[in-house]
Amino acid sequence: MYTVTNPTTGELVEEIKNSTDEEVRAAIERVHHGYASWRRRPVAERAKIASRAAELFAERADELAAIMTQEMGKRINEGRGEIGIVVDIFNYYADNGPTLLADEPLPINGGEAVIRKESIGALLGVMPWNFPCYQVARFVAPNLVLGNTILLKHASICPRSATAIAQILHDAGVPEDAYVNTFASSSQIPWILTDSRIQGVSLTGSEQAGISVAAEAGRNLKKSVLELGGSDPLIVLDTDDMDATVKTTATARMRNCGQSCNAPKRMIVMDDIYEEFVDRLTEHVAEHYLPGDPADPETKLPPLASAEAADEVAAQVEKAVSQGATLRTGGHRVDRPGAYLEATVLTDVTPEMDAYTEEIFGPVVLVFRARTEDEAVALANDTPFGLGASVFGTDRERARRVAEQIEAGMVYLNRAGGSQADLPFGGIKRSGIGRELGPLGMEEFMNKKSIRL
Ligand code: NDP
């Protein structure tokens, strides 16, 4: 069942039945059939449609933001911001797609060759609820411009976002059989992947979902791209403006109520400024992140996406404290209806505690003390994940030296995470396989055909 439950109130808004096996098979046939003609459209035409999609996303930003607020509790302004980057993504691939897809000449021994960049067919997208529009755009925009067609299975808590996105794409001129939304259940995914009409799969979500989808794709010799979790480090080497550093790091962690895969979840602070950083951060988080209605633009702390998610994060915090961590502020469910959890700061987390290695997907900051640069790097890398990392410091060379030692798919200097259309995004280790966005985001489901001239 696809179910919309407003996490601000707990009210059940809508239930939609899962697609039947028959309906899913028909959807597969549509994207397979649609591929034959979509791939033959000139790239410039597909790019023009992507550009029109960007315009429609911009026009419907308020409507989409309101849907996300209702479905998963996103702050209304963050919802509008999310649509801003969706617009950038569609524009990026509309503007750059034709150049990125041009033949690449390759001088070879004894002659000449070119690499031709072709689509591979119908793809399955399995998408999460945390950025209902952005996550879909990252996968869909490059692949539609490339000429692949898409069967999209969105998270079961955001069917309204899924429907609104499909509507925009069709209104922009994407044929009904080049992009098909399905309300398949996750238990139908394995047999969708056995179907020879589906050529690959991209999943953004939890490790468990990633493992299951990648295993099934592998069994069927199909490519998978995985964007999974993270427990990204943010190292503070020094600062000449503690207030600004505290605010920047807190904002990055609390974005989307802490439910971002690439949020800095572990602040690693040098010994000489650690106490001051922790005190100011604790004060700032306790004063600034007060619960409220996400539809109110003044609200700083919205609910999590569901009551289950809030309970789970509260239980992770409780366990960390029972294992010896220090709770500086927050840590409890808020006494009001809805999936609220207090904004939380934890310190003294040690390697024996679960919180040291697991991802905490909510408004919880962990702060660690590092005595040397080497210790900071070792702490940063002591994680099963490797998505993004940030290094803050007044000495650029020093910050860069530290950044270069971090094992992650992305590193940011003096800025905390984030995402932009032209910068590749993705992780290593348990954070995933493959890249999205930028030029690399168009290569994952591409047949780079060698043509020996
Ligand atoms: P899930 O991974 O369960 O959901 C993401 C998507 O995968 C949904 O469409 C879901 O469908 C689908 N899915 C779930 N299990 C399977 C499966 N076995 N086979 C195929 N598809 C599957 O995320 P949750 O919503 O449960 O979130 C839990 C955790 O996932 C978070 O705490 C966080 O760690 C991580 N996460 C990471 C995200 C990221 O941006 N990297 C985004 C969201 C979550 P359905 O909704 O129908 O179950």
From TrEMBL:
Instruction: Supply the CDD domains for this chain.
Output: ALDH_SSADH1_GabD1 (cd07100)
What GO molecular function terms would the record report?
Answer: aldehyde dehydrogenase [NAD(P)+] activity; succinate-semialdehyde dehydrogenase (NAD+) activity
Q: Which InterPro entries match?
A: Ald_DH/histidinol_DH, Ald_DH_C, Ald_DH_N, Aldehyde_DH_dom, ALDH_GabD1-like, GABD/Sad-like
Keywords, comma-separated and alphabetical: NADP, Oxidoreductase
Superkingdom, taxonomy of origin:
Bacteria
Residues of the Aldehyde dehydrogenase domain:
3-451
In Pfam terms, one family for this protein is Aldedh
Tell me the PANTHER family matching this sequence.
SUCCINATE SEMIALDEHYDE DEHYDROGENASE [NAD(P)+] SAD (PTHR43217), SUCCINATE-SEMIALDEHYDE DEHYDROGENASE [NADP(+)] (PTHR43217:SF2)
The entry's family comment says: Belongs to the aldehyde dehydrogenase family.
Protein name, as recorded = Succinate-semialdehyde dehydrogenase/glutarate-semialdehyde dehydrogenase
Source organism (scientific name): Halopolyspora algeriensis
Lineage of source species: Bacteria, Bacillati, Actinomycetota, Actinomycetes, Actinomycetes incertae sedis
